[in-house]
């Protein structure tokens, strides 16, 4: 390895400068405020977790985990998401009486990048987990809350695509008969390889009607009427259950008043074998990656030895900022430049203004190197220089 | 407005022909232009011209909504994009080639290629450990002057192999060009993309 230059950072690690910090702070405040209003309680979990527990349970691919060893030789991971740590915490401590838990977080998560730049390896996520509630009302609440929080952050135009993995699984099982064959097709969907999916379906020893049902899945996207089309493709119990759940969900979302930014997308698969029911992704114009995603993951808590249904969402703050496209405005900072003899007056003035909530810099004149460059960064300046009573 | 990343070179002309057949009104001087960005306002389309290997990158990052990329590039780059249609143009295949009766170095067999990921996973699946040497072109040279025992490359007519005294040893995958879509565009601009897919499928036919 070549010698590092002193300015270098590991791949994908970024600094946050004041302007961006202010934008992040505003978004964080707007979103967490809204989340609190829905009764979710914020928690923090450690940055480091065990690879064997949280690392293995996480939906994030193994090659994206940052791993290190502790003194005892256990493999640790920098948390790649917040869902797995919260599942650990809920399963081991908080989820006791079987009643729903509503937890929220805003935290940095870490995912190693192997490719070129353009993707941060550490980024802030804001999200919620609703644990212990298996009703469609919980799915609808989580989606509506996500939409409300995005609106509070100032996002105007966005789309939430909603799918149901239960529908996909039911269709595959009905047509193909076993999990192994279903998994092959699921992987094509997961890899977004629709050409491969179609070719594989055509090569299967199935009736043309069954083939058509599998091919039709790729077209099951659009508005609510998609659900009606989807119902025609399947009549097994599991399939019917998924359809009813989607209908109920839409009904709930209509009552929440958010149905307009929803699209139904039955070929949506976010992770292999992670989500268990309704799942969703949110997109904005002019950002090439989803802003966030979520869904029902009823099997995760069982990995931490406590069975419980759960659903949640996570929004990536970095991508949300890109979608908002706001340059960030300079904060007004007042600067008092003083000389030693008027220090007590300067302190008094600063305290007074700070009490009013203003941002005030107190700067000794002798500490300044270039007065013009120095004053340029502040919105206004008070000079307290020379003997008292003689302002410049 | 929809942005399409087009591969410069061999695939470009076939792709343009296909779009014209699908009744997209592209200006006549489209092919001759040396511009990298070509707007076609009457179709609300913008074309960007990129290296074939880079098309997938533009589309994955979402600076292009759609792209036309060879399956070879898709296999090599494994980008997170939707592969929605086989355009059935620029047909060729990925193959292993080498000298006839050429000996394979038993200790550390070497394979030269423009496709290190494809080559590496292919040989692993075959249960053979090889060392990969990445080259950027004229791959056929490698076995001739002893840089590698075998090569992995795309073969269309087989003429280049033949003229250089090489033979195809194994076939890895059939290659054609694909229509690819950025995951966000696929959901946000679904009507336009579905329409394009339909128009194109109609002219491609089902074999």
TrEMBL record, chain A:
<dbReference type="InterPro" id="IPR006195">
    <property type="entry name" value="aa-tRNA-synth_II"/>
</dbReference>
<protein>
    <recommendedName>
        <fullName>ATP phosphoribosyltransferase regulatory subunit</fullName>
    </recommendedName>
</protein>
<dbReference type="InterPro" id="IPR041715">
    <property type="entry name" value="HisRS-like_core"/>
</dbReference>
<dbReference type="GO" id="GO:0004821">
    <property type="term" value="F:histidine-tRNA ligase activity"/>
</dbReference>
<feature type="binding site">
    <location>
        <position position="111"/>
    </location>
    <ligand>
        <name>L-histidine</name>
    </ligand>
</feature>
<dbReference type="InterPro" id="IPR004516">
    <property type="entry name" value="HisRS/HisZ"/>
</dbReference>
<keyword id="KW-0808">Transferase</keyword>
<dbReference type="InterPro" id="IPR004517">
    <property type="entry name" value="HisZ"/>
</dbReference>
<comment type="function">
    <text>Required for the first step of histidine biosynthesis. May allow the feedback regulation of ATP phosphoribosyltransferase activity by histidine.</text>
</comment>
<feature type="binding site">
    <location>
        <begin position="81"/>
        <end position="83"/>
    </location>
    <ligand>
        <name>L-histidine</name>
    </ligand>
</feature>
<keyword id="KW-0328">Glycosyltransferase</keyword>
<dbReference type="GO" id="GO:0005737">
    <property type="term" value="C:cytoplasm"/>
</dbReference>
<comment type="similarity">
    <text>Belongs to the class-II aminoacyl-tRNA synthetase family. HisZ subfamily.</text>
</comment>
<dbReference type="GO" id="GO:0140096">
    <property type="term" value="F:catalytic activity, acting on a protein"/>
</dbReference>
<comment type="subunit">
    <text>Heteromultimer composed of HisG and HisZ subunits.</text>
</comment>
<dbReference type="GO" id="GO:0016757">
    <property type="term" value="F:glycosyltransferase activity"/>
</dbReference>
<feature type="binding site">
    <location>
        <begin position="274"/>
        <end position="275"/>
    </location>
    <ligand>
        <name>L-histidine</name>
    </ligand>
</feature>
<feature type="binding site">
    <location>
        <position position="129"/>
    </location>
    <ligand>
        <name>L-histidine</name>
    </ligand>
</feature>
<dbReference type="GO" id="GO:0000105">
    <property type="term" value="P:L-histidine biosynthetic process"/>
</dbReference>
<keyword id="KW-0368">Histidine biosynthesis</keyword>
<comment type="pathway">
    <text>Amino-acid biosynthesis; L-histidine biosynthesis; L-histidine from 5-phospho-alpha-D-ribose 1-diphosphate: step 1/9.</text>
</comment>
<keyword id="KW-0963">Cytoplasm</keyword>
From TrEMBL, chain B:
<protein>
    <recommendedName>
        <fullName>ATP phosphoribosyltransferase</fullName>
        <ecNumber>2.4.2.17</ecNumber>
    </recommendedName>
</protein>
<dbReference type="Pfam" id="PF01634">
    <property type="entry name" value="HisG"/>
</dbReference>
<keyword id="KW-0368">Histidine biosynthesis</keyword>
<keyword id="KW-0067">ATP-binding</keyword>
<dbReference type="GO" id="GO:0000105">
    <property type="term" value="P:L-histidine biosynthetic process"/>
</dbReference>
<keyword id="KW-0028">Amino-acid biosynthesis</keyword>
<dbReference type="InterPro" id="IPR024893">
    <property type="entry name" value="ATP_PRibTrfase_HisG_short"/>
</dbReference>
<keyword id="KW-0808">Transferase</keyword>
<keyword id="KW-0328">Glycosyltransferase</keyword>
<comment type="similarity">
    <text>Belongs to the ATP phosphoribosyltransferase family. Short subfamily.</text>
</comment>
<comment type="function">
    <text>Catalyzes the condensation of ATP and 5-phosphoribose 1-diphosphate to form N'-(5'-phosphoribosyl)-ATP (PR-ATP). Has a crucial role in the pathway because the rate of histidine biosynthesis seems to be controlled primarily by regulation of HisG enzymatic activity.</text>
</comment>
<dbReference type="GO" id="GO:0005524">
    <property type="term" value="F:ATP binding"/>
</dbReference>
<dbReference type="GO" id="GO:0003879">
    <property type="term" value="F:ATP phosphoribosyltransferase activity"/>
</dbReference>
<feature type="domain" description="ATP phosphoribosyltransferase catalytic">
    <location>
        <begin position="51"/>
        <end position="201"/>
    </location>
</feature>
<dbReference type="InterPro" id="IPR018198">
    <property type="entry name" value="ATP_PRibTrfase_CS"/>
</dbReference>
<keyword id="KW-0547">Nucleotide-binding</keyword>
<dbReference type="InterPro" id="IPR001348">
    <property type="entry name" value="ATP_PRibTrfase_HisG"/>
</dbReference>
<dbReference type="InterPro" id="IPR013820">
    <property type="entry name" value="ATP_PRibTrfase_cat"/>
</dbReference>
<comment type="pathway">
    <text>Amino-acid biosynthesis; L-histidine biosynthesis; L-histidine from 5-phospho-alpha-D-ribose 1-diphosphate: step 1/9.</text>
</comment>
<comment type="subunit">
    <text>Heteromultimer composed of HisG and HisZ subunits.</text>
</comment>
<keyword id="KW-0963">Cytoplasm</keyword>
<dbReference type="GO" id="GO:0005737">
    <property type="term" value="C:cytoplasm"/>
</dbReference>
């Amino acid at each position: 390895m070549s010698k590092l230059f002193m300015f270098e950072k590991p791949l994908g690690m970024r600094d946050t400068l004041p302007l961006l910090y202010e934008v992040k702070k505003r978004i964080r405040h707007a979103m967490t405020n809204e989340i609190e209003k829905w009764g979710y309680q914020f928690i923090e979990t450690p940055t480091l977790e065990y690879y064997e527990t949280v690392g293995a349970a996480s939906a994030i691919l193994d090659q994206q985990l940052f791993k290190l060893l502790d003194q005892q030789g256990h493999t640790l991971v920098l948390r790649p998401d917040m869902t797995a740590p919260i599942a650990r915490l809920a399963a081991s401590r908080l989820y006791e009486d079987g009643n729903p838990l509503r937890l929220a977080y805003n935290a940095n998560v870490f995912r190693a990048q192997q490719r070129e730049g353009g993707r941060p390896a550490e980024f802030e996520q804001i999200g919620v987990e609703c644990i212990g509630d298996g009703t469609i009302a919980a799915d609808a609440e989580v989606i509506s809350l996500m939409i409300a929080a995005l609106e509070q952050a100032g996002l105007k135009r966005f789309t939430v695509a909603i799918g149901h993995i239960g529908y996909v699984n039911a269709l595959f099982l009905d047509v193909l008969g076993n999990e192994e064959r279903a998994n092959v097709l699921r992987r094509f969907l997961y890899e977004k390889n629709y050409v491969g999916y179609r070719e594989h379906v055509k090569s299967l020893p199935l009736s043309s009607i069954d083939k058509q049902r599998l091919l039709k899945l790729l077209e099951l996207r659009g508005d609510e009427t998609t659900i009606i089309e989807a119902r025609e493709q399947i009549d097994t119990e599991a399939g019917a259950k998924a359809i009813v759940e989607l209908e109920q969900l839409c009904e709930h979302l209509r009552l929440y008043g958010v149905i307009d930014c929803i699209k139904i997308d039955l070929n949506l698969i976010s992770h292999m074998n992670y989500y268990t029911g309704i799942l969703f992704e949110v997109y904005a114009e002019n950002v090439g990656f989803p802003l966030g995603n979520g869904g029902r993951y009823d099997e995760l808590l069982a990995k931490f030895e406590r069975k419980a249904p759960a659903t949640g969402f996570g929004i990536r703050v970095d991508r949300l900022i890109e979608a908002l496209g706001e340059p960030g405005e300079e904060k007004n900072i007042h600067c008092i430049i003083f000389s030693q003899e008027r220090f007590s007056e300067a302190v008094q003035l600063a305290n007074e203004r700070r009490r009013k909530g203003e941002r005030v810099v107190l700067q000794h004149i002798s500490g300044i190197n270039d007065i013009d460059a120095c004053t340029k960064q502040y919105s206004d300046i008070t000079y307290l220089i020379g003997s008292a009573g003689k302002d410049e | 407005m929809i942005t399409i990343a087009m591969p410069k070179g061999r695939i470009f002309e076939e792709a343009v022909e296909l779009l014209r057949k699908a009744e997209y009104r592209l200006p006549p001087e489209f092919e001759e232009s040396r511009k990298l960005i070509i707007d076609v306002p009457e179709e609300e389309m913008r074309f960007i011209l990129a290296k074939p290997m880079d098309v997938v990158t533009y589309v994955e990052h979402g600076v292009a909504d759609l792209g036309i990329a060879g399956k070879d590039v898709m296999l090599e780059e494994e980008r997170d994009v939707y592969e929605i249609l086989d355009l059935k143009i620029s047909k060729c295949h990925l193959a292993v080639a080498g000298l006839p009766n050429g000996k394979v170095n038993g200790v550390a067999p070497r394979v030269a290629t423009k496709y290190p990921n494809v080559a590496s996973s292919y040989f692993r699946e075959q249960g053979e450990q090889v060392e990969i040497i990445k080259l950027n072109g004229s791959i056929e040279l490698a076995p001739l002057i002893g840089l590698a025992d075998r090569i992995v490359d795309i073969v269309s007519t087989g003429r280049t192999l033949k003229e250089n005294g090489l033979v195809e040893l194994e076939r890895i995958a059939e290659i054609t060009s694909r229509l690819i879509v950025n995951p966000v565009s696929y959901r946000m601009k679904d009507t336009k993309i579905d329409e394009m897919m339909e128009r194109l499928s109609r002219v491609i036919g089902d074999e």
